[in-house]
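Task: sequence in, structure out. Protein: DUF1493 family protein.
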Amino acid sequence: MSLARCLGSRVRKSFRYAYGSCSFSHSDWIKLIIAAACLPLRNDSTKSYELGKIGYITVNTYNSIVDEQDQVFFKMDRNDLNYEIVDYLVERIYFYVGFGRKAFETLSLITRVSWDLGLDGDDASDFMEDFFEHFGVDPGDYDHYRYFKPEGTDIFVFFRSKDRRAKTAMTLGMLYKAAQTKAWDCEALDNINFSTLPLYNRTDEIPIEGFSINTR
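Result:
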């Protein structure tokens, strides 16, 4: 059975379990299927009741929810950020590793400088040294191996503790926040939920030539 059929069947059964027979339009069932996709598929009467209830709520509030969710692709208000910091970070990372052709379509505060942009090794070391100096950031408990792999083959990786094997992602948001606060605090930075909105909305906002934004 396809996923769509499975979800559709489950929603109908769950709703009837919770509320009995009720006349729903085809579009309403589609809305219920969307609600079902957000919940685990379990053969549990309690969960079925909850699914039916949530589906009922979803149908009655669907339009308002959609209106709100449409704003997921909102534009970043340039007044929300200090773009002197943002542009500097972007330009320096580009200097070391370059960017893909469509990088600025999705570049955001949650973009990972190593895992997404490819900054590692000696380039990462030079970048961070420049970062701390340029913004006057106190390194605090910063540990390079926490975020970045060394140059070449890391033959000593298993001799370092697990938290020093480049398993923690450093994001542009973490760099931005540290530049603002002038301090690097691993725990504080690791636990901030940064915006997923693209940093740049128009081609003329991009601080580097040769790139464009076509999706907004």
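Confidence is low (pLDDT under 50) at residues 40-73.
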